[in-house]
Structures are given as structure tokens and as C-alpha cells.
Amino acid sequence: MMNKHFRLTLAALSAVVLSVGCAVSYEKVNSMRGTDVSAPDVPFEAKTYQGKKPGLQQRVARTFNEQPPVIPHTLDNFDEITLEDNQCIECHGLAKFKEKGAPKMGDSHFKSEKVDMTRWQCNTCHVPQVDATPLVKQNFVGNVSPKL
């Protein structure tokens, strides 16, 4: 019994000494960006979308197979997607995509001629593009060959 009590006391004492030692040798912690982690983040400069109005710009080429297409136009003046309303379908749904000259929503998005609710929130996968310098240097090369 005494041996167990001694080990618990020693463990508690070691923890106290270690925590005091850590507090004494405290160094300022920096983020990967090199800034103090307690400093407030500086917001990024607002960027404008590449395309202003739908249908007036080229589609953005995909860079890998199964990549969700990006949105080549701004989403300003578009209503928020709700359970009852989704303005994207007005141009990209089965009923009007040909008339509007818009790309049709992928077949995987439909269930019996209706948009599957698991694919209803378009901007979960599809995002508008901005003309911005990449935040980090990269050398990614896609694997999609151009369509002939």
C-alpha cells in the first residue's frame, strides 16, 4: 500500500515540477505564417469574380477527372439557396438549360427528373472563381486531356 502511495505522490510531484518548468521556459508561439497566434487575423483583400453576368464568359476548364465545375460568374443578386428555392436550377435544370445556353446539371444530380435533395445545395461543391494570386506556390498539373 505504501509503495502505491509513494508512486502516486512521486507522479503528482513530477507533474508539478514539469508544469512549473514549462511555464518558466515559455517561448512565444508563432503560427505557420510567422505571426503571433494571439494576434488578430488580417482579413484578405476582397476580390471580384471573374465573370459579372452569367453566360458572358468562357467556362473554366477542369483540371482533374470528376472535378466539380467552377462557377464562372458572380453570385451577386442571386437569392440564397433554401429548401424551397434554388435559382441555379432556373438556368441549369432540365427544363431550361438549352434555352438559356447553360451547362446542364450532371445526371448524378437527378432522381427521377427531379433534383436530388442531396445535390440541392450547389455551392457545397461548386464555387465562383476570382482572379487572385495563389496564396501558396504550387506546381499542380492536371490530368484531364483537352476535348477535341
Task: Describe what you observe in this structure.
The protein has 148 residues and is an all-alpha fold. The chain has a domain at 48-131: Flavocytochrome C3, Chain A (Flavocytochrome C3, Chain A, domain 2, Orthogonal Bundle), CATH 1.10.1130.10. The chain has three helices and two strands; from the N terminus they run αααββ.
The strand count comes to 2
Gyration radius, rounded: 27 Å
CATH 4th-level superfamily of the domain at 48-131? Flavocytochrome C3, Chain A
Name the overall outline.
elongated
CATH architecture of the domain at 48-131: Orthogonal Bundle
Structural class, judged by helices and strands?
mainly alpha
Give the integer mean of the pLDDT values: 80
Question: What is the succession of H and E elements?
Answer: HHHEE
Report a brief summary of the structure:
The protein is mainly α and 148 residues long. It has three helices and two strands; from the N terminus they run αααββ.
